[in-house]
Design brief:
Layout: E1 2-7, H1 11-20, E2 29-35, E3 40-41, H2 46-51, E4 60-61, E5 69-73, E6 76-80, E7 85-88, E8 93-95, E9 98-101, E10 105-107, H3 115-118, H4 125-136, E11 143-147, H5 151-163, E12 168-172, H6 184-196, E13 199-202, E14 207-211, E15 214-217, E16 220-223, E17 226-229, E18 233-235, H7 237-240, E19 259-260, E20 263-268, H8 281-299, E21 315-320, E22 324-329, E23 332-335, H9 337-354
Parallel strand pairs: 1-2, 1-9, 2-5, 9-20, 11-12, 11-17, 12-13
Antiparallel strand pairs: 3-4, 6-7, 7-8, 10-18, 14-15, 15-16, 19-20, 21-22, 22-23
Helix pairs in contact: 1-8
Length: about 350
């Protein structure tokens, strides 16, 4: 039997399972998935979990069941591509014939002193739970600093505002305006929402140091009771340790078929892959679609095309609390209640197809 091993139960590998199971998996292939948790986590909703506006159960989806799918629970400590083995922290190992690495990312602190030690995170479900506990126990009038005004920072700040109207929230943005890569109309809408809801946007910020209850923005010191870091990501350490060419963000450079250039049996999906897009759940799913096609062709000894079709993303959607949102779809800006309903609908459909 040929052994396909999936590392991580994130969006990419869930799409792989959705396409192969129950009827497309060849009779001579078995699948082993390795993950730290016994369920798929909806990472795009961690901001709401950390803010306390949804329960833990709402960000969990069960893994599919199949007679040739086995789930191993554990933390990957090493990927040995030479001997085609994955080693776990408990000392055990799993051999593979084909491997799809989808272990996700962790915070990137940009060498800012104290950032890794004195800030909280929403990059994993464990970290989002810990952040929720810290934020929910704050007394009224406490100051929360959120470093990084990308999509995660924006959604966290807006959701926290709805959850805790008694907190002072400061969102630190490196740019002159929110979401500068998108139309001014979209940025203006998000800015107006924050202005109307008393969230302080600190533009042109540069956090140079973090201390307990203190942020250093340029030469200014800003007291905070809690700081949450949403200012960049990088692949997890075990992936960064794979001997392979990487880009400036430490993501692994791949062949046109999404495998390591010198190893056709190791595929990289999601946040760890060097692709011409910002990492996202949508990107991981689209990449997984192509990986499944490549796997099927290789298993059937079919000749691969020189290039795979270019990945086309539909756009992105973000929420501003439970009632408002923003989206950029097909080069069109959508704001307000409709955008929020669209995002809720996409999430419902995802749960329906994967739950």
């Amino acid at each position: 039997m040929r052994q396909l091993v999936l590392l991580g139960g994130g969006y990419g590998n869930m799409r792989v399972l959705l396409r192969l199971l129950p009827n497309q998996l060849p009779d001579d292939v078995t699948i082993t998935m390795i993950d730290r948790t016994p369920y798929h986590c909806l990472k795009t909703e961690y901001y709401a979990l950390a803010s306390g506006t949804i329960s833990d159960q709402e960000v969990r989806v069960g893994f599919p069941e199949h007679e040739r799918l086995s789930i191993r629970y554990g933390t990957v400590s090493n990927i040995d591509t030479t001997n085609q083995q994955v080693r776990l922290e408990d000392g055990s190992s799993v051999s593979y014939d084909d491997l799809i690495v989808g272990l996700g990312c962790e915070d990137k602190y940009h060498n800012v002193p104290g950032a890794d030690e004195y800030t909280h995170s929403i990059q994993s479900i464990y970290q989002a739970r810990a952040t929720y506990e810290k934020l929910s126990n704050l007394p009224s009038g406490s100051i929360v600093g959120i470093v990084g005004a990308g999509l995660s920072g924006i959604e966290l700040a807006s959701e926290l505002r709805e959850s805790r109207s008694d907190l002072i929230i400061k969102l630190f943005d490196r740019g002159e305006r929110i979401l500068p890569a998108f139309p001014v109309r979209l940025s203006s809408y998000v800015q107006k929402w924050f202005d109307a809801n008393n969230v302080d946007i600190v533009s042109n910020s540069n956090i140079t140091k973090v201390e307990p209850n203190m942020l250093f923005n340029h030469e200014e010191t800003i007291p905070v009771d809690v700081c949450v870091w949403t200012a960049g990501i990088q692949p997890v350490e075990v992936v960064r340790n794979i001997p392979c060419e990487t880009d400036s963000s430490k993501r692994l450079v791949l062949s046109p078929h999404h495998n390591l250039p010198d190893d056709e049996h190791v595929y990289i999906v999601g946040d760890c892959a060097s692709l011409p897009f910002a990492p996202s759940a949508q990107l991981a799913e689209e990449q997984a679609e192509q990986i499944v096609k490549v796997l099927m062709m290789r298993w059937n000894n079919e000749e691969l095309p020189a290039e795979m079709p270019k990945i086309k993303l539909k756009g992105f959607m973000g929420s501003l609390g439970k009632k408002q949102g923003f989206a950029y779809l097909a080069d069109r800006t959508i704001t307000g209640r409709i955008a929020r309903l669209l995002k809720s609908g996409v999430l419902w459909m995802y749960k329906y197809h994967n739950g």
